[in-house]
Amino acid sequence: MLRLKLAVAAVALLAGSAFASPTAPKNGAEYTTLKTPQPVLADGKKVEVIEFFMYHCPACYALEPAMLAWVKKQGDSIVFRRIHLPLTGENDPEAHMFLTLEAMKLEESLHAKLLSTWHVERRRLKSDADNLDWAVKNGVDKDKYLAMYNSFSVITKLKSAGRVASTYEVNSTPTLIVNGRYLTNPSMVDTSNPGIPRPQLDQATLQVLDALVAMSRK
């Protein structure tokens, strides 16, 4: 009888796994639902999509081309924004630079250059001095940059960045949050769909994203 029960359980597990798919994602497999839904900045019928990332993260860099194409395809139907995960805590220089450029409304225009610096030029921006040097060499006014870098608003956001990530249950990058409710990332999609070739994993992740956006519209 015990063997029969174990066999039935194994068949049920296999059956559940068989239906796991990026185009039909399952809660607890390709995505999870946040324990506490978070407020969104999107209004009307738009769906908010947040990408938690880090400049130095290879997986974030690999996802970037497909992610940008996906965002462009969505047009005005979504609100897309990035949050830099503070890897080293309240004084993380990468997150500090992100928040400074964001406050100066320069992050979006310099995002690709920053990624290229890390992953193509393989130049590591690991300190405040590295950040300042890079910013100035890329056309950012030094005095304005330093003023914003040391501003109360940016420092406050930097110190709370870790708590923000915890609120969204994020502990790795890239991680995507849809409508303040659903969380997914390439690692989850890969684990739930073994055998997906690495070049196709990013597209599979975006298929999950499509499904979660559709769920959010209902």
Automatic annotation (TrEMBL):
Predominant location category: periplasm
Query: Which PROSITE patterns does the UniProt entry name for this protein?
Result: THIOREDOXIN_2 (PS51352)
Give a single Pfam family match. Answer: Thioredoxin_4
InterPro entries (UniProt xref): DsbA/DsbL, Thiol_disulfide_DsbA, Thioredoxin-like_fold, Thioredoxin_domain
Out of the domains of life, which is the source?
Answer: Bacteria
Instruction: Tell me where in this chain the Thioredoxin domain is found.
Output: 10-214
- Mind listing the UniProt keywords for this protein, alphabetically? Disulfide bond, Periplasm, Signal
Signal sequence bounds? 1-20
Signal as a keyword of this entry, yes or no, is yes
Q: Where in the cell is it found?
A: Periplasm
- Which family does the record assign? Belongs to the thioredoxin family.
Protein name per Swiss-Prot or TrEMBL:
Thiol:disulfide interchange protein
